[in-house]
Every structure is written in structure tokens, then in C-alpha cells.
Amino acid sequence: MKDSGYSGGDAAAGGGGNHLLVRRVMQMTMVVLAFVVVWILMYNSSSPFAIPVFSRYITTRDSTMISYDPELESVLRNASMENKTVIITTLNDAWAEPNSIFDIFLKSFHLGIETERLLKHLVVITLDQKAHARCQALHPHCYHLETKGDNFTKEAFFMTQDYLKMMWRRIQFLGSVLEMGYSFVFTDTDIMWLRNPFNEFYNDGDFQIACDFYNGNSNDLNNLPNGGFTYVKSNEKTIWFYKFWLNSRKAYPKMHDQDVFNKIKMNPLIQNIKLKIRFLGTTHFGGFCQPSKEFNQVCTMHANCCVGLDNKVNDLKILLDDWSKYMALPNNTKPNVHTSWTVPQSCKTSFQRSRNRKNKGR
To answer: Which are the contacts of 107, defined by CB distance < 8 A and separation ≥ 6?
Structure first.
């Protein structure tokens, strides 16, 4: 604390010093304000590498000017777990036909271990009216997502324009769910739920993603992820990340969301915001690319590395038959059983043919 016993001359000198101090403070304030304006402008630009401004998301959440579809709010609220987490899948007419993917998907929840109760937390996002009607006939939590003129009724073949539009519309929608304050597990409908996966997620992960091929290290960004299964916590980091991911499609216009993720996952901006990415191992989260070898630990199995709806349907039915045989075993023998999957079959052939055609085209 300064001494208050100044002389008159000192007081005059102090007044001049105070004016100089005020001018310097004002100059510094203007510099800071200019920097903030430039920062915000850079973020709002079309560049996929825009700088994150976390306060923007806080303002958005608190703002009464921002509103969401009341029907979506209602569906999410009714399906939510106590910690505001939902399970989400998407559905179009091709996959909603009777005895097709959607029926098999729902059946897996009934056959799985501690999975049937998770159906009350499943939200099905339908992409056309026929799929929506089919969903409503089978499930309580359905939401029809408007697609602004795009027609996603038919099967969207891998890497076609319809496929790319569908994938990016999905990323956009999931980002909005995060903004609404809901965490989610996103699951493709060709993933069979065989055990409750929540026990196998990492406590410290903001964004957790399954893999086509897993190298054994959940922190290693060199893993080859599959965007068909993710667990994402709603927070400022993940909300920003989904916006960044969506904007990054402009830098890679011919890539789908999974390949773009592979391009941006090591970006310094993601490291700067300290987004914790964890990769889920194929022992618990397997697929046809790299099947889980542990029936006693597997949670989900994905019909990845597979081309064609009919091939997926055929092999997923066989997969559930394999699982049903395992479940029929006496409980005391299951820990020691060495059961193996009899799939992929049709999917293996279709995938190999697809790879051969791709290699010939090079």
C-alpha cells in the first residue's frame, strides 16, 4: 500500500501520471477489443480451420433467441437417461423394410445381455416418411429429420452423392444434439448390441469412437476409426469439435465424414482445446473388419467391411444365430467356452470384390 502523505508538488506530478496511465489503459483496451473482433471474425469465416470461441457456445445455450424443434426436445427428453444421455440411430426406408436391418437391430437388444432395457433410451432419427411410419409401428421414440429436398429413401451406396449428403447431415444433426445439452451414443443400425457398452467406455473421454482396425492403444491417433459407433459427451469442447468437423468437409469435398475425421484428428486446434479422444478396442466393439474373439466380453458387432444391404442382412442374421447358440450354453461353461463367429460370409465375398474393383481402377 502506498504512503498517503504527499506534498502539493507531488500531487500535481501524480495527476499528470494518472492521465498518462488512463491513456495507456484505454489504448490497451482498444487493442484487446480489436483482437477479440478479429478472433470472432476468423471463427465465423468459412475456413474449416477457424479458431474456437467457447463463449459463443455459452451465449448460444443461454440465449432466448436460439430455439430448437419442440418435437425433438420432447423426444430427447422422454428417451434420456438421468445424466441426459441418449442412444441415437438413423433410419431410411431401405433399411426399415420388414425383415431388414432395423428389425435385426432391434432383435439384438432383446437377445443381448442387459441391453433390452436400453431400448427405452433409443431415439430413431428417420430420414423419410416411410421409415418414420415403420419406426412408429415398432418403437416409441422416433423423430423425422427434414432433409431439405434430399431423398434418402433408397439404399445410399458407399461414396455416392446421396451417401455423402446423408453422412454430413448426420454430423450436423449430432452437433445440434450436443448443443441442446445431450450426450449420446451414436450407433449405425447394422450394429448388433450384445452387451451393455456403458461399462466399457472411458471416464476421461470426451469423444470415443469404434475402430475398423484397432492397434491396442486407445490413445493412439493412428488407430483406424469407424464413425458408425461413437460415445460423445456434451460439453464446450465437443460442441466446437462437431462444428469444426462439419466445416472441414469444405477442405475435403470428396471425402466422407470418417475420412475427414482421419484428416483432422491430429490438427493442433483439437489438441489446443484439450479434446480427449479415445478409441474403442475391437475386443468389446468388434466388427467384420476385425471381429471380437471374446464372446465373454463383446458388446457390439458391426457389419463393417461389407458392401450391399442384402449381404449385411444375411450375415447379421447368421451373427445373431451364433450369439443365440452362445447364450443357450449353461452359465457355468460360458467363461471357458472358445466359440467363434461363422461370419463374415456374404460380406467377406462382397468386400473382397469391391476391393478388387477398386484396385483395378487405379
So the answer is: 320
